[in-house]
Structure formats: structure tokens, C-alpha cells
């Protein structure tokens, strides 16, 4: 059943494809009958023979009928046109047989119509029609046999022999069967190949659509990707749009969602956010939204102003959507936005995205949600950072940092009991760069581990000289970045280096800040315990600056507590701050920790500090950081 349906589809497709061919065939046949009619009037000009008016008018009439069918195009069904052609041919054959017997073109006409059957009609119908037509000479033979039809002697004795007419019928039947078999086989293969070609073309088109989808759309969010976004923008520009705005949106907190619920859930969130953004732009044909991959989306906005966009950003809240509620996500969705004005700030898409990314870097530093418009000085800052990064890499490789030392003083006897090592850098082209500027660049550039090793090794090389200057009991503090502190085999590296350079671990203090990762608390505890076992002291730096200090003190045994400068700035004028300081000192004493006050700069601060149990200070009042060597 399926095969029959398949063949029917083949035939239906073939019939549709042969309709134009038949129209052209009708036109050519009409022209040939005009030519035949002209041949019939040649005796008029040559004065030889007689004009055959019967065939003249027959040829002209048939030519006219065929031409009418041609100009009527598809107004006449295909089957009617085919049968009109068949009827015309049969009429000519019968007329030829009656007029000229076997000497005329009747047999050729029948062979022609048989071929036409097999080309334009379905297989069974064409075979039945061909066999029916093939018995036409046999009918003439029967008429001759019954003496109902006699041909003149000048046409030859063969015309009056029934056997000759029967033989012509048999010949046409054999011709019908053989030609039909051959044509049907060829036509079947042709139709099948055509269908396969069409199916292949369809598959290629579908594949092309799929490839276009991959090439032009983000596979996760199904939003236009960067490539299609650029094409759409160029179309807008070429259509005459002169001014517009581009916005880059970065979703905050996606890493937290991935950590809590898995990357698959995070992908679902991005998909839902994309649908919300798409809904937001559906009624705004002047707005285009696309995905740049990850958690970033880009907008093209026309017919607006900075003020309108800023108001829309303030009002727009992803959490208002029922699907994206904080209760369902376990996290409130927030976003950062940077913007640029086109073509005032940038014209090409590469330049636009680069400057939007620069604005986004600034937006990440903002504490509240608002759009950050790109400004030229931002680009200068990025260029400066890039140059500093290159210089930093070279400085770290060449170990060209200088080390400044700031004294820790016991205020009870004004003796220096320790030193803190502080990195200093004089950059080519820029001069002295503060740690507040170059440390974040080192961290972002993933140079923190080689930088940490560079500073550590340089300080270790100075310790023998520092012991000569300040005494054998002096302790030198080194700030250790959380990333370096959690670096694999950190302890082994430290202890081997100290052993190789014959430095006593008891002369060393590592200061770590509370921004080490809370989820690594067990690893930190293990590292600190091993360091202290080997004689290295560990200090909790910047106590009170963040929110997790007490948690670290609860889990980890430190030797020293350094109170952040922010607790000490106002102790001379604020009783509240002094009480906080006093409480911290009592807490440290109860845990057996030595307390150090950072940033003491005035006598008033010192007088207040003396009223507490903290007797070790570090600050400009006693000592500024000094480069002692190199």
C-alpha cells in the first residue's frame, strides 16, 4: 500500500512537472501543422499537381485548436489537453488511412500518439489506450475483408490485403508493449531520481535552516547571537537610523545559583531571563535584544533618550516575573547595565562591545543598580591597567619589586618587636604605583601566585640582614594572598625554601585576611595548624573590616590579631568606637592572642590605646614604611 502511494506521489509530481512541457509540445505541434498546411498549397505556385483542400483545412483547423489550448494555459485541465491531442492524432490517422491507405502517414501518426500516451498518461491507462489505438489498422483490415472498404489500384494491391492491415496492428501492438515498457522504466527511474533530488534539496534546505539557526542564534536562549545582531544593526544603519543607544546587561549572582542548584538550573534561569527580555521587546520594534553568551545580553534601542532609558532600567525588575521569583530561585536576581550612544561613542560593533565591556567593569564596582554610561576616561583607565599588567609580568619575572618595612612597636618600652614587609613598585612610564592599584591588577591577571613567591623569596633573602639590624628575636610579617595561601603544596614550598636558606620559621609571621574563602575553612585550618607546628606564626589581618572574622577565630587558632584601621581612626573622639576597641582587646586576651593596632597616627589615639590591653602598634606615629635594601 505504501509503495502504491509512493508511486502515486511520483506520478502526481511528474504530471505537475510535465504540464509546462505539454504546453510547449502543443505550440511546436501547432507550428508543424501550419507547415504541413503550407506544403498543401505548394501546387498553387508550381502548377504541378492539385491542392489537397481537405488536408489543408484539416491541418489549419488542428493547428488552431492546438494553439488555442496553448494560449489558454492552465484554464484547461491537463487531461483534456492530452485527450484533445489524442483525438486530433486519431482523426488525422483515420483520414490518412482513408485517403492514402498504408502509403500515408497514418501509421506514423499512431506511433506518435502511442509514444505520447506513455509520456503523458499513467502507466496502466497509457498501455490500455495504446493497445486500443493499435487495433485501428486491424479494423481497416476487417473492413477490407468484408469488402466494405476498397482502395483504388493506384494506391497498391497491399491496401486491399487484410493480412497487411492485420500485420500493421500486430506491429503497433508489439511497438506499444516494447516502447511502453522501455519508456515506463525510464520514466520511473527519471521520476524517482527527480524525487530523490527534490528530497535531497529539501533536506539540504532544512540542514541550511538548522545551520543558520546555529550560526545566527544562541543555542541556549534562542536569541540572536552576536553575528546576527551585527547584521540586524547594519540593516538599521543602512535604512537611515542615525542615532540610537546600545546597552549591555550582565546578570549578577548566576554563579551563586549554579553553585547552589547546578549548572543545568542556571541554564534554565538564563533561558527564562531571555524569554522575559524577548517579551519586553516584542511590542517595541525599535528595540533588538541578543545574547552574547554566558550571562550577558545586549540591546539596541532607537527613538529614546538617556533619561528614558535610565528610568526604564530603574523600573525594570526581573523578579516581578512569576517564573523568576526569589522564593523559587533561592536567590534574588540582579543585573548590571552599561550603555553607549551610537554613533557618538563608537560605530563598529567590535568597538561598541569593547567600550560596553569597559563600562561594565565600572558597573561591577558600583554598589547600587544603575546604568553606567561609557566615558572616554574609562578607556584610559583600562589602557593604563593593560600597560601596568605588562610591566607587572616583567617585574615579577625579574624579581624587581622593592620591599619596604614598617616597624611594630611595643608602646610600653618603645622597642621594635617586629616588622611588616610591604611591596613597593616603581613602574616604567608611570613611576611609583601604590599597592591599592597594582594588587587588584595582579589578582585579576592571575599573577598572584608568582607575585606571592617573588615577595616571599625576597623577604627571606632580607631576613638575615634584618636580624642583624633589629635583633635575633625580631619577627617579620608577610601578607599572604588567599589565592596563594590555598595554592596546592603551599606548606611544602614554604618549609623547603626556609630550610634551603637556613631561616628560622620562628622569625616569620604570615598575615592572612578574612576574605579567604569560607567554604575552604577546613583546608585553611589544616594549613594554619601545620605552619604553627613548624614554628611559623599566623596573624588574622584587618580584623573587623568584613563580616566573617569571628567565624575564623572560632575555627582557627591564630597567634596574632591585627585590628583594622577603621576601628582606630575615631577612638580619640568617639566613646562608642573606643568601647568597641576595648571589647576586641578583651576578646583577643581571652583567646590568648597578641593584639596589634594598625594605623596609629596621633598622640590622642595613642593615649586612648594605652587604656586598653593592646600595647603593640603599627603606624606613622612611630614609623613609616622604609626601603632598607636594594
Which features would summarize this protein structure in a list?
8-stranded mixed β-barrel, about 625 residues, 5-stranded mixed sheet, disordered N terminus, 23 helices, Alpha-Beta Plaits, 15 strands, alpha/beta, TIM Barrel
What does this 3D model show about the protein?
With 630 residues, this protein is an alpha/beta fold. It folds into three domains: 198 residues, no CATH class; 149 residues, Alpha-Beta Plaits; 246 residues, Alpha-Beta Barrel (TIM Barrel). The chain contains 23 helices and 15 strands. Helix 5 packs antiparallel against helix 6. The chain starts with a helix and ends with a strand.
Top CATH class of the largest domain: Alpha Beta
Which regions have little confidence, pLDDT < 50, spanning 5+ residues? 1-6
Helix content: 55-70%
CATH architecture of the largest domain: Alpha-Beta Barrel
Rg (C-alpha, Å): 49 Å
Strand order of the largest sheet: 6-7-9-10-11-12-13-14
**End-to-end distance:** 95 Å
Report the total helices: 23
| Superfamily (CATH H level) name of the largest domain | EAL domain
How many β-strand runs? Answer: 15
Report the sheet-strand fraction: 5-15%
- Mean pLDDT score, rounded? 81
The biggest sheet, with number of strands, parallel, antiparallel or mixed sense and barrel status, is:
8 strands, mixed, barrel
What is the third-level CATH name, the topology of the largest domain?
Answer: TIM Barrel
Task: Give a topology summary.
Layout: H1 2-40, H2 43-46, H3 53-71, H4 78-100, H5 106-120, H6 123-134, H7 136-145, H8 162-216, H9 226-238, E1 244-252, H10 254-261, H11 263-282, E2 287-291, E3 296-301, H12 306-315, H13 326-329, E4 334-342, H14 349-365, E5 371-373, H15 376-398, E6 402-410, E7 415-427, E8 431-433, H16 435-444, H17 448-470, E9 475-479, H18 482-485, H19 490-500, E10 508-513, H20 521-533, E11 537-543, H21 549-555, E12 560-563, H22 575-590, E13 594-598, H23 603-609, E14 616-618, E15 626-627
Helix pairs in contact: 1-3, 1-4, 1-8, 3-4, 4-5, 5-6, 5-8, 6-8, 7-8, 10-11
Amino acid at each position: 500500500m505504501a509503495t502504491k502511494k509512493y508511486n502515486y506521489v511520483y506520478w502526481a509530481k511528474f504530471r505537475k512537472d510535465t504540464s509546462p512541457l505539454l504546453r510547449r509540445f502543443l505550440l511546436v505541434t501547432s507550428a508543424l501543422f501550419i507547415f504541413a498546411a503550407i506544403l498543401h498549397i505548394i501546387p498553387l505556385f508550381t502548377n504541378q499537381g492539385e491542392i489537397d483542400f481537405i488536408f489543408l483545412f484539416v491541418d489549419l483547423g488542428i493547428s488552431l485548436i492546438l494553439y488555442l489550448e496553448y494560449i489558454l494555459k492552465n484554464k484547461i485541465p491537463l487531461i483534456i489537453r492530452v485527450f484533445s491531442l489524442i483525438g486530433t492524432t486519431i482523426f488525422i490517422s483515420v483520414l490518412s488511412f482513408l485517403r492514402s491507405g498504408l502509403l500515408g502517414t497514418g501509421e506514423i501518426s499512431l506511433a506518435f500518439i502511442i509514444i505520447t500516451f506513455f509520456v503523458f498518461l499513467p502507466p496502466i491507462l497509457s498501455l490500455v489506450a495504446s493497445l486500443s489505438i493499435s487495433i485501428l489498422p486491424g479494423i481497416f483490415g476487417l473492413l477490407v475483408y468484408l469488402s466494405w472498404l476498397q482502395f483504388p489500384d493506384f494506391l497498391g494491391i497491399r491496401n486491399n490485403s487484410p493480412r497487411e492491415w492485420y500485420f500493421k496492428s500486430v506491429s503497433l501492438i508489439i511497438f506499444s508493449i516494447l516502447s511502453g515498457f522501455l519508456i515506463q522504466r525510464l520514466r520511473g527511474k527519471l521520476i524517482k531520481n527527480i524525487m530523490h533530488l527534490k528530497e535531497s534539496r529539501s533536506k539540504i534546505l532544512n540542514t541550511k535552516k538548522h545551520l543558520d539557526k546555529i550560526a545566527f542564534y544562541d543555542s541556549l536562549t534562542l536569541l540572536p547571537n552576536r553575528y546576527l545582531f551585527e547584521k540586524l544593526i547594519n540593516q538599521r544603519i543602512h535604512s537611515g537610523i542615525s542615532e540610537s543607544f546600545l546597552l549591555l546587561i550582565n546578570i549578577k549572582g548566576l554563579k551563586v545559583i549554579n553553585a547552589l542548584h547546578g549548572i543545568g538550573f542556571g541554564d534554565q534561569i538564563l533561558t527564562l531571563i531571555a524569554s522575559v527580555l524577548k517579551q519586553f521587546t516584542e511590542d517595541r520594534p525599535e528595540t533588538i535584544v541578543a545574547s552574547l553568551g554566558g550571562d550577558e545580553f545586549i540591546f539596541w534601542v532607537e527613538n529614546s533618550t538617556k533619561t528614558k532609558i535610565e528610568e526604564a532600567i530603574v523600573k525594570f525588575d526581573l523578579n516581578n516575573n512569576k517564573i523568576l521569583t526569589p522564593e523559587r530561585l533561592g536567590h534574588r536576581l540582579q543585573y548590571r547595565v552599561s550603555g553607549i550612544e551610537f554613533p557618538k561613542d563608537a560605530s563598529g560593533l567590535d568597538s561598541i562591545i569593547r567600550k560596553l565591556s569597559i563600562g561594565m567593569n565600572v558597573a561591577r564596582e558600583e554598589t547600587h543598580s544603575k546604568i553606567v554610561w561609557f566615558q572616554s576616561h574609562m578607556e584610559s583607565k583600562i589602557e593604563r591597567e593593560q600597560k601596568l599588567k605588562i610591566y607587572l609580568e616583567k617585574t615579577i619575572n625579574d624579581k624587581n619589586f622593592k620591599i619596604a618595612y614598617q616597624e611594630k612597636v611595643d608602646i610600653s618600652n618603645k622597642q621594635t618587636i617586629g616588622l611588616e614587609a610591604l611591596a613597593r613598585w616603581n613602574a616604567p612610564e608611570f613611576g611609583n604605583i601604590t599597592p591599592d592599584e597594582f594588587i587588584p591588577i595582579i589578582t585579576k591577571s592571575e599573577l598572584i601566585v608568582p607575585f606571592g613567591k617573588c615577595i616571599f623569596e625576597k623577604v627571606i633573602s632580607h631576613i638575615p640582614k634584618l636580624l642583624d639590624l633589629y635583633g635575633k628575636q625580631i619577627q617579620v610579617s608577610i601578607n599572604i594572598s588567599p589565592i596563594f595561601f590555598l595554592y596546592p603544596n603551599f606548606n611544602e614550598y614554604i618549609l623547603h625554601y626556609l630550610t634551603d636558606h637556613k631561616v628560622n620559621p620562628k622569625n616569620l609571621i604570615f598575615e592572612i585576611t578574612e576574605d579567604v574563602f569560607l567554604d575552604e575553612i577546613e583546608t585553611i585550618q589544616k594549613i594554619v595548624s601545620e605552619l604553627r607546628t613548624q614554628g611559623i606564626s599566623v596573624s588574622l589581618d584587618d580584623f573587623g573590616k568584613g563580616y566573617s572574622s569571628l567565624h575564623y577565630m572560632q575555627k582557627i587558632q591564630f597567634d596574632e590579631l591585627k585590628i583594622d584601621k577603621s576601628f582606630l581612626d575615631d577612638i580619640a573622639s568617639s566613646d562608642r568606637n573606643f568601647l568597641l576597641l576595648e571589647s576586641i582587646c578583651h576578646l583577643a586576651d581571652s583567646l590568648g592572642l597578641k593584639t596589634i593596632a594598625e594605623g596609629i597616627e596621633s598622640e590622642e589615639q595613642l593615649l586612648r590605646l594605652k587604656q586598653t590591653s593592646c600595647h603593640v602598634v603599627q603606624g606613622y606615629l612611630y614609623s613609616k614604611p622604609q626601603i632598607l635594601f636594594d
